[in-house]
Amino acid sequence: MACCVNYISPPRASLSPPPSRSSFSFSGDAVHSLLRRHSRSPSIVAPRFQVVAAEKAEPPLKIMISGAPASGKGTQCELITRKYGLVHISAGDLLRAEIASGSGNGKLAKEYMEKGQLVPDEIVVMMVKDRLSQTDSQQNGWLLDGYPRSSSQATALKGFGFQPDLFIVLEVPEDILIERVVGRRLDPVTGKIYHLKYSPPETEEIAARLTQRFDDTEEKASPI
């Protein structure tokens, strides 16, 4: 752990004037190495170090973000994860990945989806819990995208010890949401999302292969 120390110069007149009393950061191993190196030289008296405070590392940031489809979660998640170095965890992507990998939770989820049923909360919660528990999430912090969506899901995550430092809710007027949704297109080759008005494809070749997702309609975007 890094520490903040006071440097006290050795009391020898033969040495050049020491620096003024100051504080600086160092590692414990570096200090021991310095002391050993100085002690082997008969012409130098090893300096003394006095620890005055220990610097506590800030815990990794934990964020949850929520918003309606086309509210801009993808853009905000990209900006936030890039700035803070967080692990971006999307519940939807996680569900698809678990199914593709054939994990136990993935197989259970696939059974429900093949029957046209919603995947039970307890299955998705376990997927999210397992991902949040992985080393990269614990060390770097995480940004949980689009989850939880209900109080029961939030309560379940809290029961496992996962609680955010910050919960972001993106609020966008309904008419703008509808415009964003109906103009949104997917590139099936790269997975990139375009918008016919705000973010059109770079080439005619890309434009020709774009598809519209089944739920990117005004009916799906409008609140019930």
Automatic annotation (TrEMBL):
The family annotation for this protein states: Belongs to the adenylate kinase family.
| Enzyme Commission number | 2.7.4.3
**Which lineage?**
Eukaryota, Viridiplantae, Streptophyta, Embryophyta, Tracheophyta
| Pfam families for this protein | ADK
Keyword terms: Kinase, Nucleotide-binding, Transferase
| Assembly notes | Monomer.
Give the enzyme's main class according to its UniProt record, as a single word: transferase
Recorded catalytic reaction(s): these are:
AMP + ATP = 2 ADP
UniProt-listed HAMAP family: Adenylate_kinase_Adk
InterPro entries the UniProt entry points to: Adenyl_kin_sub, Adenylat/UMP-CMP_kin, Adenylat_kinase_CS, P-loop_NTPase
Name of the protein this chain belongs to: adenylate kinase
Under CDD domains, the record lists: ADK
